[in-house]
Design brief:
InterPro entries: AraC-bd (IPR003313), Homeodomain-like_sf (IPR009057), HTH-like (IPR037923), HTH_AraC (IPR018060), HTH_AraC-typ_CS (IPR018062), RmlC-like_jellyroll (IPR014710), Tscrpt_reg_AraC-type_HTH (IPR020449). By secondary structure, the chain is of the alpha+beta class. It is about 45% helix and about 20% strand. Strands 2-9-4-7-10-11 form a six-stranded antiparallel β-sheet. A four-stranded antiparallel β-sheet has the order 8-5-6-12, with no helix packed on it.
């Protein structure tokens, strides 16, 4: 059975975690939110596209919506981190569409190493956001929004100032697996089989599956469907295309095939998902 690869959020999520033991994600996943992550202690491995990053204290990553990623413990038995998931529609209730676009346009997916001073400043914003997130009362949500807006402004300044941040270098995954990942990302709408992928890099099925799983944290089929479903998700939200066209554009043999895989992953049909998303859209501003 396909593991759920999508994690939806309807409001800000602020989460602090301290793990005293190794911990790996069960499968690669993505969000329809921006994700902001700060490593506080220990090491953590991030796999993003075809690059593996070792996150150490003071490292921060930003992911735009629909970026497939995976984190795991490799070099450290324990770790501590903060994470914020930011649904863009929540900002629409606070800002105009133009203001939201201006605030977010600098936030490209990236992995940064912050100086001690920068890390301390960012950490303080995370702590304030966490405190507001755990508060109750009519002002709690407004205070949380205020802190997160301040954090977004700060991150935009850090990204804009090339001298104030250092992009973290990552280690590329094995060239053969990179080739297959690139092939999937550009040919996901075609009929791609495990045998064809293994043949592309001249490997046996067994050897290919072992290397692919070790490099990406997902089976070949999980990764392929994750890519396809992330594209389906975007088309359901951003277009009015009928399901038959979405299925064709995203590599599914039929609407029934798309609906079966989508329901297996998300627990709802594509039509139900689209209707639910439309019902939650804020009214257009006058």
């Amino acid at each position: 059975m396909l593991h759920t690869a999508f994690e939806p959020y309807e409001e800000f999520l602020v989460e602090y975690i301290r793990k005293p033991e190794k911990s790996d994600m069960k499968v690669q996943h993505y969000h329809d939110t921006y994700e902001i992550y700060l490593q506080i202690s220990g090491d953590r491995t991030l796999i993003l596209n075809d690059v593996r990053y070792t996150l150490r204290p003071g490292d921060l990553y930003i992911l735009k919506p629909f970026e497939i990623h995976y984190t795991e413990s490799r070099e450290s038995d324990s770790y501590e981190r903060y994470i914020i998931n930011l649904p863009v529609p929540v900002l629409h209730s606070l800002l105009t569409e133009g203001e939201t676009r201006l605030l977010l346009h600098k936030l490209d997916s990236c992995v940064l190493h912050l100086s001690d001073e920068q890390a301390a400043e960012v950490l303080e914003h995370f702590k304030k956001a966490d405190a507001c997130h755990n508060r109750s009362g009519f002002l709690a949500e407004k205070l949380l929004c205020s802190v997160i807006l301040q954090l977004l402004v700060l991150l935009g300044e850090l990204l804009e100032d090339a001298g104030a941040q250092d992009t973290l270098d990552g280690k590329s995954i094995q060239p053969e697996i990179v080739s297959v990942i690139h092939y999937i990302n550009t040919h996901y709408q075609e009929n791609i089989t495990l045998d064809a992928a293994a043949g592309l890099v001249h490997m046996s099925r067994y050897h290919f599956c072992r290397l692919f799983g070790s490099a990406t944290g997902a089976t070949f089929l999980e990764y392929l469907y994750n890519v396809r479903l992330s594209k389906v998700h975007q088309l359901l939200l951003d277009t009015r295309l009928p399901l038959s066209q979405i299925a064709e554009k995203c590599g599914f043999t039929s609407t029934a095939h798309l609906s079966r895989v989508f329901r297996d992953a998300y627990g709802v049909s594509p039509r139900e998902f689209r209707k639910s998303a439309a019902d939650k859209e804020p009214p257009e501003q006058q």
